User: Fold these one by one.
Assistant:
Number 1:
Amino acid sequence: MVANRGYNSTSAKTRQRLIEAASEILDEEGYPAFTARRIASRAELKPQLVHYYFRSMEELVVTVFKRSSASYFQLHDEALSSPRPLHALWRLNCHIPEARRMLEYVALGKIYPALREEMRASGESFRALQIEAIENICRQRGIDNPPMPAAALAAMMSAVARSIVIESNVAMTMAHEELNTFVEKTLDQYDPS
Amino acid sequence: MVANRGYNSTSAKTRQRLIEAASEILDEEGYPAFTARRIASRAELKPQLVHYYFRSMEELVVTVFKRSSASYFQLHDEALSSPRPLHALWRLNCHIPEARRMLEYVALGKIYPALREEMRASGESFRALQIEAIENICRQRGIDNPPMPAAALAAMMSAVARSIVIESNVAMTMAHEELNTFVEKTLDQYDPS
DNA sequence: GCTGTCACTTGACAGGTGTACAGTCGCGCA
DNA sequence: TGCGCGACTGTACACCTGTCAAGTGACAGC
């Protein structure tokens, strides 16, 4: 008889290994390699275990995304609590592995609706935190006429970092340096050294 | 005997139909639907014709990309020749179907190296044209201290537009309006109405 | 009328995909 | 000692993927 099919034992060691392997696959080989068999093989487990611990690939990808998101939250929080929060945030945004992983999720989001919803939710909450942080900085340092609204700055930082990663993926580098310099100069107006 | 396999008859009507169908599939259903069978079925042709006219899916996707690229070049050129070139370019960048299609190519680029190379080449040439256009505007209007270097402005416009499209794909809209307003205000400094 | 060429069709291959279900093993508890 | 249950395995399904080889039919040129 088939029993519980371990969907609930969220802490089982094997389950964790699968999540870990899935995450590594995504980082190292990208979304096309995100398949039950590849992931299981990376974890040195039988492919059927994927569907023993997860109802579907969609449930797996959402689980993996949530884990990424949680660990990113830590880094994000540290950045915003550092002495120059915006520069730290910018460095985090540009951190290639994280940014690249997000691109893979974008591709997988085309296939799995539940992942899109998860991305929306987490994306909006990160953005809200950033906007709040920027507004706090302005208030604390008495910046009354910032170069741009807090929301625009937060969104621009993500946009620029993401774009640099996308273009690097196709070996495009033209104008990246200038763009990076411009962003850093802008941040200097909030976050002087 | 197998003959030429139509690889060279680049103008054949059937071949054009395949290219057209592939392009529509990409726009309407995204990269996961970019398969020989779906494309042929959309063109109401037998799937094997795809490999009669194209050596491989990679050759097809590169061909389709080049066509997109060429038609985009026209729009791009018109924008840069208009009375307010940067606003026109910005509107073009934000044009959702074009921007969304580019995202699909990014996903396909993970699979097809030749597509990546094509994207790099065309991406760099568009960027070079934009930088040149911005520098011309500065020269003509006597803008000696622009808010940012021409290269940074060109790259930022792409980055922001692309990012808005990515986020819209997952139904994220927070801060988009503010970002759009900021970009337009920046462009006003180059391109007054 | 024969031949060759071009456009296309028929049929198939090997490999990959997500997913399901019944069976087995081992360990804790009665 | 036996039972139950959770963890895992074996086997299989239906479907989809890119790609290929051979054959068919029409038409042009000799």
Number 2:
Amino acid sequence: MAKGNASRYVLLGLLDWEPMSGYDIKKTVEKTIRDFWHESYGNIYPTLKKFLAEGLAKKTVERQQGRPDRIVYQITAAGRRELVDWLEEPPRPQRARDEFLAKFIFGYLVPRQTNIEQIEHYRRKLDERLEWYREMEALLKRDRLQSRKKLLEYLTLRQGGYVLEGHLRWCEEALSALRDYPDE
Amino acid sequence: MAKGNASRYVLLGLLDWEPMSGYDIKKTVEKTIRDFWHESYGNIYPTLKKFLAEGLAKKTVERQQGRPDRIVYQITAAGRRELVDWLEEPPRPQRARDEFLAKFIFGYLVPRQTNIEQIEHYRRKLDERLEWYREMEALLKRDRLQSRKKLLEYLTLRQGGYVLEGHLRWCEEALSALRDYPDE
DNA sequence: GATCGCATGTAAGTGGTTACATGATTTA
DNA sequence: TAAATCATGTAACCACTTACATGCGATC
């Protein structure tokens, strides 16, 4: 039975994409899956060390001049087995925590104008994500038929697109409802 | 400056709705905001005790026959001040972690049929949420014009609706793309 | 001369969850 | 008679995050 620790398996999955250093993992997360995942160095480096101890990955050290050594981790057969075990388990029900909505629902305690400003701020963030999304979509759309791996990458991104669209529509609805609402 | 601990302020917010026991808080979360929030007793009870120590809430004990005492917590002026401070701060950027998508994107390591089954499982969960959503929407739609508090409650729910819709559409797209995909 | 990118790591702290303990009452 | 509801709590554990430390080379 796999551990409940999803982060572990995401790191294993990234190493299955290709051998990487801890630093590379951070970059890769921020470039490719940042819409639904994040990792900190404080989590990455200790986890990679555990992989070595458990035989789920092996390392090779790349000496560099004028730079620290790169420690590149490669997934092992045992690592891939653990990853597959986890992949086959049904995902655990998500326990949501949306800080924006939490603030929003208690927003009757602050002026209406504050509610509006917070949605506008939220929308600007969404616009930034949308820009990133469009670039990624253009990139992935082309080779989505190459392999199931590519198709799954593309579809994963697409979910982000649907959700973004939903959020943006909501912003418009919420803004116009609040602007129309009479002052108390 | 408010602490980074959002859970704390959600509990304070719920106590602002009305005085409640820890048990009530759990029920209220599951009935009204479960689409974007969750709480465990192991978090609720210690937090309520801290509120007492910090003067953010006060308690009254309701004796009952044949049942344990109910300890009802009521927010204080100081508690409301802390809550408002938090509400006025811009929400911190969300650090997403979606376990379903994490499993999905590495799904090329398991049979295509597993990918399909996991989406179907996911969609069934969404259908359950949709049912709950429709009931709640009918309830809240009526009195959304009563007060800004009600309007914000309704709008919060609406975001859930937009996101649900997006997820459901995605399921259809992903299922048909995967069903069409040739076996390797 | 400051900051950014490269690159690795750790120690202390945070913000919880899980599992357990208790026990009467009501419902299936 | 088993399980669910009511009701409170704690102790052990977990999965991280934050802040710090190091240090060279390149860019602004």
